[in-house]
Each structure stands twice: as C-alpha cells, then as structure tokens.
Prior knowledge:
The chain has helices at 3-19, 121-127, and strands at 22-36, 43-57, 61-71, 85-99, 104-113, 152-161, 166-182, 188-205, 209-225, 236-241, 245-256, 262-274, 288-297, 301-309, 325-333, 336-338, 341-353, 365-377, 380-388, 400-409. It is mainly beta.
Amino acid sequence: MNKKYFLTIILILTLSFAFGETAFNSFAGASLDLGPRKEKKGIALNVNGAFAGQYTLDNSFTLRGHFLVKTQDVFENGIFQDTTATFTIKELSATYRFLTENINQQASVFIGEFESFGSDSFVKKYFGTKNLTSPVLLPELGLDTNGMFPFDGAGLAYSIKLASPKAFGLYFYYNKTKTEETQEDGTISEIDTKRINADFRFSSAWDFLVLDTDFGVSLPMETTIKHGTESTEDDEEVILLIRYAELRGGVSMLLGNNPITNLFLQFGLQNITLDPAEKNHILSLDNIYLFMEPRFTTEYVKCNVAFFCLPQKTLKNLKYIKNPVGCSLTFASQPIMLFGNNADFGCHFTVSSAAALDNMEIKSFDMQISPYLNLYVFGGTFEVSSNIYPQNFKKNKEFFTISLGYRAYL
C-alpha cells in the first residue's frame, strides 16, 4: 500500500477514537466438512471459514467487511502440507447515516454483495425483524443467503425509512457476468459481459406482514460492433453500445405470526430480455425463482413444508438443496437443555430434480436427508449436521457428508 494512503488511514482512525464514540461488532465462523471423495477412494476434508466486521463511528458512519475462505481437500497432499484455498471478499462497504426525528437516510458505497434482494439484511436493518429466511436456504457458512437478485459489483446505494413502517432503496452498480455465446461452428462459449445495473426497492413491516419488493434493470455493455460472430478487421470500435436490456422483479414476504405459524413466499422473474432485434422472447425455467413455505408450530415441534423452483446459479452455496426443482419437509424441535446448555435439533427431508419439466420422471428425483443438532455454548452456536443421499449408497458417488461448525457474534 502507498505510504501516504496508509498514514492517512491511521490518522483517520486515531482521530475517530480520540474525538468520537466508536463501536466494533464482528462475526466469525468455521466448519469442517468430511465425506467420501468423488473420483477415488478415501475421505475428503474441506475447511471453511467466514469473518465479518463492522466499525461504527458516532452512530453515523459505518465500515463493514465480510470475507470467506474455502480449502480444497486437506487430506489430498497430507494434513501437514500446503493446501490450495480460495479467499473471497464477500462485501466491503462504507455507509453514512443522516438521522432526523422522523426520517432515517443512508448513503453507501460498496464492493461485492450489498443488501441483496431476498436476504433478510434490509428489513432487519430498518425494521428489526427476526429471521425470515427458510433454514433450507441458509448458506454453508456466512451471514445471509444469496437472495433472489444479488446486488453484486461496485456501486452506490441510497435508502430511506419514513416514520411509518416503510422503506425505499436505490442501487446503482457495475459488474461482470458470464454470458453464453454461440459460435459459427455451433459450439457455445462463455464470455465476460460488463453490465450497468439499477434496482428500486420498497419494503414495509406490520404485525402480520413483512414485505420486500424489487424491480431492476441490467444493461449489457459493448464497445465493438461485430460484423459476424467472429472478430474481424471490419469490426468497429465505439465508446458504448447497448443492444438490449434485461429486466427483473420480485417479491419476498412473510404472512402471519413470526416465528409461530406463517407463510414464507418468494417469487421473482429475472433475465427477461428486451431486445428490439428479436421477435421471440423465451421464458425458461432458469428465469424463475419460486419458494413457498408454510410453517407450523406446536408445543413440541416445528414443521415447515417448502416447494421450490430455483435458478441453477442460486444453488452454488446452499447446503440443503441440490437441484432446482423440488420440495422439502423440515422438522425442528423446540429448545431443550443438553449438557447444561440450550440446544435444538431437527431434520430436513428434500426431494429435488435437475431434469427439464418435460423430461421429469420419478427416477430423475434425488433424495437428501439432513439431520442436525445445534448446541448454544460460549456465546455462539456449535452445529453438527450431515447430508445423506440414499440413492448413492451402492453407486460410486458421494453417499454422505458430515459437517462440524461453530459460529459466534463477537
């Protein structure tokens, strides 16, 4: 880092501690995943870690960071040898709050994922709601779910909460995504597409309804006018070319008494292309995000029944959903005492398929059984869980995984 910038940061932090009221909150977690190797015999061990920190000055200025670490198989080269790992900066953001008697305004600059639509972060921040997201949508490790539409990239955000239980948000950000392109020989290749994105958000909360809505547009950018699918000398360079727009919109809501008996519903459409050069606009299964979960609570047990149709890319970090289309049944205990500490346990039963709707048969569905135990110790949560795939018992595939994890707010 440049010496001048480093000294500037040190000076700002020193002055803030000297003349302002400061606070620092953090979250840390780690997990060990054990399971059979997919391509050869033996047991694989993967280590995951997460850390998030938030520094606040005078309740008006906030710096926040969220980081993830994932290793490959630790046993591959030996437990005492170097292991390849990936480090991800999930979020870096700075927020300034304008607080008045009746209105709360916030302006933010961010890199990474910031208040993605479909996660709980926005409604928690403004309305102080309890967790809304379904347990089967929780990531392997981290704070929030990926949500329906990740606000992922580098950009600006502005949000405002009125005296009534209503909040609005505007997001403008730039990112790069992978786009499939068909070549002249018929092969499909992935190219990086630069995009400008804008989203408008409206949220509200009442006693028996929490509502979060979003409408957004993505504009893929080009700087070259190609005469054909391959690059040639006749291609023309331009400052900016936008051939089409992609729209998205969705709603996330909890209807009923949280966390007793309620209905959790998320529905959205994404990547809806508006292209003047195309006459047919096809809506595929990968454009639809649908998750519906009625929840019931009795004196001894909680029961959730979920039905889902999710885009393939949203499954990457999910622990309890393997394929895009299916249903899930969850049983969870009420809090109990175990070893002198609070605890709860339960099990997720999930049936899902990756087949297209017109080719979907009973044999295309995969079954997943996921028992878990949460023990609340040392100010955090120790979790033991397992994913069991009964159909892979006699096949040369992954039959089960076991996960040991701990997470805590520090």
